[in-house]
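Running log. JK asked me to keep both predictions on one page so they can be read side by side. First protein, sequence followed by its tokens:
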Amino acid sequence: MTITRRQLLASGAALSAAAALPASAQKVAAPPRLEGKRILITGCSSGFGRLSALHFARQGARVVATMRNTPRPEAEELLDTARSEGLDLAVMQMDVLQQNEIDDVVSAVEMDGGLDVLVNNAGIGITGPVEVQDEEAIKLQFDTNVMGYHRVARSFLPMMREAGAEQIFFISSQLGRVIAPGAGHYCATKFAVEAMAEQLAYELVPHNIDVTIIQPGGYPTEIWQNRNIYNAALKERAAQRHKAGYPEMVAAMGNEDGSGRSADPMDIPNAIHRIIAMPPGTRPLRQAVHPGNKPQLAINKVSAETQVGWLGQSGRWGDAVRAVHSS
């Protein structure tokens, strides 16, 4: 039986009581396989995207793994793995900066039967002091991390609504809730993603499409190498009068390697898998994912309480706000 968000409101007290149980009293079973689920993921050349594509396909899902600038070795390696394991996985070119490429993928997916789950994962990091960030760096990061997510979600939503799709994921960050000096405009883009995704969650309640924001901590993925390329270029072109005030932060730009980070990046696909397997309407709006400190949890809690207290009783959006924050 499909559980709607409106039905969930009636059982909110029982869910809250269960959530209050100590971790030792909550038995966590392995989630069921994803047989037949149609899942599209952006940014699959490396990191969370690549790991998620393979994990979901190995769990029986039909996966469309997208990445920019194909053909490229990463695409061939992913396809070779899929062929050798007999996985239902396709690779398609899709740069989230290019609307025409997104439109091409939307058309192909629609012709192939549609989509159940969309994972907005593609993103970049350009860090360093705010003063050192120039217009080129700011535009590229917002265009990729914020507008890219919006382009993709907006393009797939008509199909997803009409087909009764299930879920959209937005990969955010701890830094979408807390702020680190020297993070450039990365924090600003992830704060924007958090707001955009939460708004969309309310608006999609009538369509029974869940929205979940994944908030990873720091993981040892290729993001560090990619960030170094962008940071080195920014440092090279930045004027000395801007760099002069921040010698230590500027020195680190282009030289970070993610050393000391040992968390398993598979935490992200595993978390997404567990959430997909949950009954519709019970999936969380936000999920912090990291074995270490999760400073955003307190902010998530206060934010939810504020939203419910502010709009939860309104005639127009009260049902939707309470439904999103009841899971």
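And the second, directly underneath as requested:
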Amino acid sequence: MPELPEVEVVRRGLQRWVSGRTVASVEIRHARAVRRHLAGAADFADRMVGGTFGPAHRRGKYLWLPVVGTGTSVLAHLGMSGQLLLQPADAPDEPHLRIRFRFAAAATAAGTPTAGTANGTELRFVDQRTFGGLSLHPQLPGDPDGLPDAIAHIARDPLDPAFDEAAFHAALRRRRTTVKRALLDQSLISGVGNIYADEALWRAKLHYDRPTATVTRPRSAELLGHVRDVMNAALAVGGTSFDSLYVNVNGESGYFDRSLDAYGREEEPCRRCGTPIRRRPWMNRSSYYCPRCQRPPARRALPRRG
């Protein structure tokens, strides 16, 4: 599933090419792609026609585009295989095309259509596995970015300037869980998925099963620093692409997979100490770690009965 850096790359593409455009028509090819819009596919299409997209925003793995002047925002979740692609209007349809937005032609100050790059293009939502989707939601009252009320419970992400490190540490210590589970808890910190959790934990020399109650304030601050560093490094090269299902709005893949230190490197030498990286099953996923640099926590003996 795309994580924060991949979703941010898509957001930047939407901001450049889609924000400010007015929707001329919407074609919904698969109702499942708008299943989270409870009023149905026809209502979604009708309410979008004539709407103008505002600035593109992101919180964690969620994207949204406010519809100017309506008090609503289009919420996008890419799921496992969702793609938002900007395509020429005459480009062949993708095999898994689910939704098509056609735009009204942009106009000059004189009121005549322009022939700019964005004209003659359309926004397409393509999703092979149909786990993702688009939906229209009321905006959270008073939120300047038009945050959809459906994701008001999602925590801010570590790249958000308003992210509260002290509150994160306090919540971390209160949770009776382990550090990787906490990193993937979207109500605690958003945008961190399996890949970047493993990478940040490797950099911090923390085992994924370390109890959160044992993480000190300096260690949590160090871990957050590594989370940010990993994500910024991934952003610089367009995210991580292990297959063709993650691309930006222009269909280009990211290259951070070539720089990974832990994830996907089972039996390859640790870049710090040379010990082979191990993979362990974890919550229907895998955790990659160095058994020497990231020593597992000591197991406390259970008290004897009687």
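Observation for JK regarding the second prediction: The beta strands are 23-28, 57-59, 62-67, 72-77, 82-88, 97-103, 121-127, 133-138, 278-282, 285-289.
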